[in-house]
Amino acid sequence: MRTKIGIIGGSGIYQMAGLQDQEWVTVESPWGKPSDELLTGRMDGVEMVFLPRHGRGHVYSPTSVPYRANIDALKRLGVTDIISVSACGSFRAEMAPGDFVIVDQFIDRTFAREKSFFGTGCVAHVSVAHPTCPRLSDACFSAGQDAGITVHRGGTYLAMEGPQFSSQAESKMYRAWGCDVIGMTNMPEAKLAREAEICYASVAMVTDYDSWHPDHGAVDVTEVIATLQGNGNKAQDMISRLPALLGPDRAPCPHGCDRALENAIMTAPDKQDPTLLAKLDAIAGRVL
Ligand SMILES: CSC[C@H]1O[C@H](OP(=O)(O)O)[C@H](O)[C@@H]1O
Ligand SMILES: Nc1ncnc2[nH]cnc12
């Protein structure tokens, strides 16, 4: 199988440098309109697709990002591996602004989003015990180190609804829960990628210390944006190293991300809803 890398760019990342033969393409999805057109191209002989999560010009809030349409559009373009690049606050003194964290766990506190492609007429349960792909996360870690970035391998990301930042009491509670970073977008994105059988890695770029830190107090969006500019350039450097690390030929995921739907569908074939099945053509066509 051929590798096709999908990059979901978060706040401050609305374009991707260094893509050959680049072209913005419109992808129709039965799950609605994706956040924007998708930028296709190649780097080091590997096919790449870039999607700005909030749309160019930052149109969609964390709640209104069309997560299902975005993952479905990436699947339709044949993406095998998604790297999510996001801004985040930090709960750890040693995870400082400017550092990158390769997230490996999530606590999902979002509550106003559609979280599954499945439902009445086609019920499915996939495991998200290990919501990120270790193979892809390793590649991101190496690429970050090669780019001279301070990268932390592993961390728990608290996904909050937003759009307001946390109160100090919430911030201290999340820290006591053992969370390492906080953001507003990686859920349900990671869950949907697993349902779509696409490997998913999350690179969280620290922009601030949230509000628990005695020396920092409230999150200041001006400071967040200033840190984002620097982080964005570092992220581009990291991304440009990934195609060579992953290579154009792709062996099946050793962790089974690309087979997540095997035995996941519960609804009896004669009870399945044809309308929902039609919408699931790209996501679950392999097993339906
Ligand atoms: C600009 S600060 C808050 C904003 O930044 C993060 O976005 P993303 O995850 O897409 O990089 C955070 O989740 C909030 O949406
Ligand atoms: N402190 C924070 N909380 C939630 N999302 C963020 N994105 C960047 N910083 C954040």
Automatic annotation (TrEMBL):
<protein>
    <recommendedName>
        <fullName>S-methyl-5'-thioadenosine phosphorylase</fullName>
        <ecNumber>2.4.2.28</ecNumber>
    </recommendedName>
</protein>
<feature type="binding site">
    <location>
        <begin position="86"/>
        <end position="87"/>
    </location>
    <ligand>
        <name>phosphate</name>
    </ligand>
</feature>
<comment type="subunit">
    <text>Homohexamer. Dimer of a homotrimer.</text>
</comment>
<dbReference type="GO" id="GO:0017061">
    <property type="term" value="F:S-methyl-5-thioadenosine phosphorylase activity"/>
</dbReference>
<feature type="binding site">
    <location>
        <begin position="53"/>
        <end position="54"/>
    </location>
    <ligand>
        <name>phosphate</name>
    </ligand>
</feature>
<dbReference type="Pfam" id="PF01048">
    <property type="entry name" value="PNP_UDP_1"/>
</dbReference>
<keyword id="KW-0808">Transferase</keyword>
<feature type="domain" description="Nucleoside phosphorylase">
    <location>
        <begin position="4"/>
        <end position="241"/>
    </location>
</feature>
<dbReference type="GO" id="GO:0005829">
    <property type="term" value="C:cytosol"/>
</dbReference>
<feature type="binding site">
    <location>
        <position position="185"/>
    </location>
    <ligand>
        <name>phosphate</name>
    </ligand>
</feature>
<feature type="site" description="Important for substrate specificity">
    <location>
        <position position="221"/>
    </location>
</feature>
<feature type="binding site">
    <location>
        <begin position="208"/>
        <end position="210"/>
    </location>
    <ligand>
        <name>substrate</name>
    </ligand>
</feature>
<keyword id="KW-0660">Purine salvage</keyword>
<comment type="function">
    <text>Catalyzes the reversible phosphorylation of S-methyl-5'-thioadenosine (MTA) to adenine and 5-methylthioribose-1-phosphate. Involved in the breakdown of MTA, a major by-product of polyamine biosynthesis. Responsible for the first step in the methionine salvage pathway after MTA has been generated from S-adenosylmethionine. Has broad substrate specificity with 6-aminopurine nucleosides as preferred substrates.</text>
</comment>
<feature type="binding site">
    <location>
        <position position="184"/>
    </location>
    <ligand>
        <name>substrate</name>
    </ligand>
</feature>
<keyword id="KW-0328">Glycosyltransferase</keyword>
<comment type="pathway">
    <text>Amino-acid biosynthesis; L-methionine biosynthesis via salvage pathway; S-methyl-5-thio-alpha-D-ribose 1-phosphate from S-methyl-5'-thioadenosine (phosphorylase route): step 1/1.</text>
</comment>
<dbReference type="GO" id="GO:0006166">
    <property type="term" value="P:purine ribonucleoside salvage"/>
</dbReference>
<dbReference type="InterPro" id="IPR000845">
    <property type="entry name" value="Nucleoside_phosphorylase_d"/>
</dbReference>
<dbReference type="InterPro" id="IPR010044">
    <property type="entry name" value="MTAP"/>
</dbReference>
<feature type="binding site">
    <location>
        <position position="11"/>
    </location>
    <ligand>
        <name>phosphate</name>
    </ligand>
</feature>
<comment type="similarity">
    <text>Belongs to the PNP/MTAP phosphorylase family. MTAP subfamily.</text>
</comment>
<dbReference type="InterPro" id="IPR035994">
    <property type="entry name" value="Nucleoside_phosphorylase_sf"/>
</dbReference>
<dbReference type="GO" id="GO:0019509">
    <property type="term" value="P:L-methionine salvage from methylthioadenosine"/>
</dbReference>
<feature type="site" description="Important for substrate specificity">
    <location>
        <position position="166"/>
    </location>
</feature>
